[in-house]
Each structure stands twice: as C-alpha cells, then as structure tokens.
Amino acid sequence: MTIVDVAAAAGVSRQTVSNALNKPHLLAAETLEKVHAAINDLGFAPNVAAQQLRRRRASAYGFEVNPSGAGRMGHILDGFLVEMTAAAPDHAAHLVTFAPELDRLIEGYDRLLGTGLVDGFVLGDTRHGDPRPDWLLEQGVPFVTFGRIWDRPDLDGWVDVDGRAGVRLGVEHLLSQGYERVAWLGWPDGSPVGDDRRAGWLDGLTASGHDADASMAVESVQDLSQATAAAERLLRGLKGRGAIVCASDLLALGAIRAIRNHDLRLGTDIGVVGFDDTDVAEALSLTSLRQPLRPAAEAAWRILASGHQSRPHGIPGAAATDDEGDGHAERTALLPPTLTIRASSTPEPSGTPTGRTTRRSSTS
Amino acid sequence: MTIVDVAAAAGVSRQTVSNALNKPHLLAAETLEKVHAAINDLGFAPNVAAQQLRRRRASAYGFEVNPSGAGRMGHILDGFLVEMTAAAPDHAAHLVTFAPELDRLIEGYDRLLGTGLVDGFVLGDTRHGDPRPDWLLEQGVPFVTFGRIWDRPDLDGWVDVDGRAGVRLGVEHLLSQGYERVAWLGWPDGSPVGDDRRAGWLDGLTASGHDADASMAVESVQDLSQATAAAERLLRGLKGRGAIVCASDLLALGAIRAIRNHDLRLGTDIGVVGFDDTDVAEALSLTSLRQPLRPAAEAAWRILASGHQSRPHGIPGAAATDDEGDGHAERTALLPPTLTIRASSTPEPSGTPTGRTTRRSSTS
DNA sequence: CTGAAAGCGCTTACAG
DNA sequence: CTGAAAGCGCTTACAG
C-alpha cells in the first residue's frame, strides 16, 4: 500500500496526500479531513525507506551496546535504552543498536554512519579518554551523551544524573531519621562519577552542621569482599546509631554483610543507603537512589532534536551551565535522582511496609 | 558518495559496481578486484535506505523492549539483545528497538511493520496466552522467539535454553562434590520455565540413583523473604552435608541468608547453586547456571534467515523435535546452560580461588 | 490551494 | 561478462 492508494481512496492526487502528511497547513481543512479519513480506513503508514532516501536523513540514531555489558554502567544503560526507545515515537525517530568491536570503536561508528542508517548517535558510558566525542564533533555528526563529557567541560549535548545532589539527599534523609553519624563508603579517588558522589556526602554533612573527619570515609573497588572489609573498618568508628551512604548498591551490599557480621541490625542499628536502586536493592530492602531515566531520555531526545553541537562555550574547567538563559534549546540536563526508601534506612519498623516511598530531590 | 563515484574511480559503469556488490560471480576477477579497490579507497558503503526501497525488504527486525523491564526476564533479554546485535552484521541485518504500549501490543507490532522499517521480529518473554505468535503467523510475518512457544508445541522458530538439562548438571555437580542430599528451591507449580527446571532436579537425582522425597522440594515466589523462609524449612531436613539447587539467583540468595541465619557455612556445610549467573551470583561467590546467550543469538539469526514459519508439524502436545534430519535449516534450538562454579558449591576452599571455572553441559 | 516533474541511490531484468 | 532503462515510494520545488 502506498500514497497512491490513499490518494485514490480520498479522491485527490498523490501529492496532496504527501502534503497532508508533511505540510498540512497548505491544505483546505476539508481536503485534509478526507485524506486523514482515507489514511485511517486503509491503515496506511508511509514507507520509511522511501522517506529516508528522499529526505536524505534517517531520523534514526545508533545506540552502542556492549557485549561485555556486565558491571555497573551496563544495567543503567539498558534502562536508558528502553526509555529512549519508548520516547522515540514522539520524535518521529527510532534507534538502531550496534556493537562495534571495542578495539576499533571509531571504525564501528564510521561504518554505521556510512550506510546512512543513522543520522547520529546516543553515547553511554562516557569516560576519561573517550575518543568518540572529539571524532563525532570533527565529523559534524549530531550526538548526545548519557553522562557528562568529563574531558571536555566546554561541550554541551549531554544529559546526566546529579549524583552529588542525590547522595546529599541520602545523607539528609539519614540524619532526619535520627542516625547520628553518617559515613561514606565510596570508590577510590579519581573516577569522576565517584568523586562527584563523594562531594555530595560532604555537602549533606556540612549543610546540616555536621563535620566530617577523614575516618568517616573509606573506599573500596566494586567488589563485595573488599567492600565488606572496608565497611567493617567503618563500623568500629560508628558508635551509637550510625549510618553509611554508599556509591553503589554493591558497596551497600558489602555494608549490609559487615553489619550482619557484627551482629548489628540493618536499619535499626545502622542505616544504609545505596545507589542505582537495582534489583538487589529491592531484594534486600535497601534504600537506594534511583536515576530518573525517563526524564533523562526525554532530555536526550530534545538535545538530539536541537541538532548539532552548539559552539563550544564557557571556560574549560568551569562547570557547564545548565541554562543559557537565551531562549535557545537547552543542550545540557543535570537531573536529580530520587530516593527509594526501604527498611535499611528506617530505625523503627517502617509504617508503610509494602508501599514504596519516593522522595524527589530538590536541586536548589 | 554513491555507487557512481565508485564506478568513476574504478573506471567501470555503475551497474558493474552494483554487480560487484550483489552478484560478484558474474564479474571477471580482474574487474571485481578493481571495484573492490575503489570501494576500499573511498570507504564506500551502500546507502541502506536505497537498498531497502529497491529490494522491498529492510533486512531489519524489531526487538521489543519493555519499560517495566525489571524482574528476572528483563536482564536476560537485555543480554540477548546485545548478543543479537553483535551477531547482526554477519547476517547483513540490524535491529530496531521499539516499545509498544502493553495494552495495545499487537497494534505496536502492526504499526512498526507498516512503516517497512522491519521485515519481522524477535520475541522475548514468551508466555502462556501470548497473542503475538498467532498474529504474526496469520500475517505471514517472520519471527523468532527466545523461549519456547509454550502454547503451541507444533510451531518451530524458537531458541531456548534447556533449563532442565542445566539444573540436572547442577545436581550432578553437587553430588560429585560430596554433598549427600540435594534439595530443590523453586517457583510454585504452573510456570512452564519453573516446572521444566524442577524436572531437571528430579532427573539429576534419579540418574544418580538417589531418590527424592517430596520434603526435599519447597517453593517460593520470586521474593527474598519468602525464599529465605522456604529455604529454612529445607535446612531442617538437610542433615549432614546437604545442598540446595535453586530456580533463580534470587531464590539462591534466600538460601544463602537462611544458611547464615542458622550459623552454617555456605559451601562448606551447605552447597547452593543458582540460575542465570547474574551480578549477584558473582558478588556472592554463588555457583550458578549461565544461559548461553551468544549461541542462542546465532541460532536465532539462522532461524530468521531460514525465512518464514515452516508448516506446523508434529503432534500437538508432543515435544518439538530438535532436528528434522532432512537437511533443512533447523528452526528450533535448545541450548544447554553452562555451570559457573564458585565457592558456594565447593566444600573445601577452592583450589582455584580467582579463576572462574566453566563446565559445559552435555545434552546426550 | 492543487497537480505534473524530477530525483533520492540503489537493484533487477534485459539487450548486447 | 558489461552497459542502458525502469522503478522501488516517497518529497520537494514549480507551475498553475
């Protein structure tokens, strides 16, 4: 079925059908109506390949998926892919997955681009030394990243979750629940995401008039036994009703194991807050920070729709501004996580045992 | 850049370039060589939209992703999507993700199909009462399912993991490690996947000359506290060196908690085997059955390549045969999981503390 | 506001 | 084995 069938059914020419689809304002209301009726009757949908060929754009974006997709970022990216996919129809676009060889990353991007199957890319897992942003910029290819472009603070075109604000929210929640001291279990220095989250811990303490001495922060790589050992060091200093905020749910799992090893009660004696609100958090009744993937996906589509990278701006090293204030589309979005509160941060048995409570972080 | 540019560079006509791409056997070796050289020099890739339009096929398949993607199947499907994506180039195809509204599922499939963006679909999460296979069959649309088509044993076109063989492998492993009794912690009766896995437990026991009395099997829904309680019931009957095989890693996590609650040592006193080899399994040193996603993806692509559903065959109710033995492409694949062995099933501290051991299930 | 023409980049018969 | 022609289903200027 083609546009010609619709034209016949509606009693107009094929060009009029095309206009009804692409430039409806050019048509008489009555004509438009007739065409739409015919389209609905026939269940017509334009052939996308023909549109792509003629328009010389695909309205599609490549989304890299990674076979070694284990580890922390993997799961979050899967969720982000789902939300990007769900929001795609609102932007008359779609996503094509691809899996470049990791030792020929740019070649994989180049190849997909060469087929004309996509106009640009969605990048996840941005990292130090990431070769993709510079290459794409050079090629003039539109893209959006999920995660700040850490090496290039002068670039826009990213969406990210404000881990710092999130962790601060976790600290404030714990203090409000009556835990007297709040410690930090994070990753070793040097990971941009981890350092950002750790800063949120300090923010939360100082904003509440607490002081943080160095003994209240320990670090561990993303490994359960190390995390457990690190948390045990923390417990010795955490007299009275203390709590631990963690950079990830896995680290939080280590904290929980340490608490059990010391015959303490999770929540009642020691509070714990994790990050990412994974299945594990739900299974363990662990309070955890949840990344707002749907808003992030919507922001990412807006950035893609706003087209190419705008001129690099700002002083390198300075924080990218969230709002240019000039009426143009915002090309960065820093979104606050929400806190999913469960028994691990409730000193007394929670009043709402089954209901899940969510509290929105304010980004004042 | 188009085929015309390549033709100019190679000093042939554009049709010859097209032939070099599509019917290389028609060309003189020398000519072919020249064209390939030009293609490489220019980094040419054919425009896919033009190919799709002319060939009247997309060589693309829709992959449904689900916003409520939490839960057990979600993660496995994410991994399957990745492997399908990685294998796609070998079949000159690609995947388009889409997220139909769940209360208008078929409409979502129909709509995507109508755009010509895809030729068919990859279905995950097959279930009782699934409306998709019948509809697709009716439409004559090619598809492959990840998971048997439980309601229609007469249909082929599926790949699945042999949970029954996998669990049997787990049982045999535990017995060989010296655990004297092996119990089952599974899901309530009635889920096809769960019932299949439970049958594997029985297989493993009877094949080794053990008998299974009903008290050695308990069930729990996919919830940690219920699983823990169920495992505790099991522990009372598991005198001596016993073990528990579980239908999922989450149930296994419940078993581990029960073991700790009873002051027993995981592995040393009580062995545990989970299913799916999730992050949690790795974090907890839990031996677990891993689904062979890469072979599954390859089999799925072969099925897609073999085209449409072959005539329904076999007697409904009889098990689908794995091999027609007639030289035709196999349109079903039942793949054995592998066992990732960790400390939870090793009575003595493992000899290879860091190395991960994998044992392949035989499907005799 | 509506209709006839050209063309997006390919592939596939069809003559030579 | 190679070259000229038609056409996949659209959109976009361009006359009327």
How is this structure best summarized?
The first copy, chain A, is built from 13 helices and 13 strands. Chain A has helices spanning 3-10, 14-22, 29-42, 48-55, 71-87, 105-114, 132-139, 163-176, 192-207, 224-237, 249-261, 279-283, 293-305; strands at residues 60-64, 94-98, 120-123, 143-146, 158-161, 181-186, 217-219, 242-246, 270-275, 287-290, 332-335, 338-341, 357-360. Chain A is elongated, with a radius of gyration of 25 Å.
Describe the structure in your own words:
The structure is a homodimer of 364-residue chains. In chain A, helix 9 (192-207) links the parallel strand 6 (181-186) and strand 7. With 364 residues, the first copy, chain A, is α/β, with parallel strands linked by helices. In chain A, the strands form 2 sheets. Chain A has a 7-stranded mixed beta sheet, with helices on both faces. A 6-stranded parallel beta sheet of chain A has the order 2-1-3-4-5-11, sandwiched between helices. In chain A, 46% of the residues are buried. Chain A contains 13 helices and 13 strands. Chain A has helices at residues 3-10, 14-22, 29-42, 48-55, 71-87, 105-114, 132-139, 163-176, 192-207, 224-237, 249-261, 279-283, 293-305; strands at 60-64, 94-98, 120-123, 143-146, 158-161, 181-186, 217-219, 242-246, 270-275, 287-290, 332-335, 338-341, 357-360. Chain A is elongated and about 80 Å long. Chain A has 3 domains: 3-46, 434 Repressor (Amino-terminal Domain), CATH 1.10.260; 60-155 and 293-335, Rossmann fold (3-Layer(aba) Sandwich); 163-290 and 338-360, Rossmann fold (3-Layer(aba) Sandwich), CATH 3.40.50.2300. Residues 313-327, 350-357 and 360-364 of chain A have low confidence and may be disordered. Chain A is 41% helix and 16% strand. Chains A and B meet through helix 4, helix 5, strand 2, helix 6 and helix 11 of A and helix 4, helix 5, strand 2, helix 6 and helix 11 of B. Chain B binds a DNA duplex (16 and 16 nucleotides) through residues 2-4, 12-16, 18-19, 21-23, 26-28, 31, 46-56, 116.
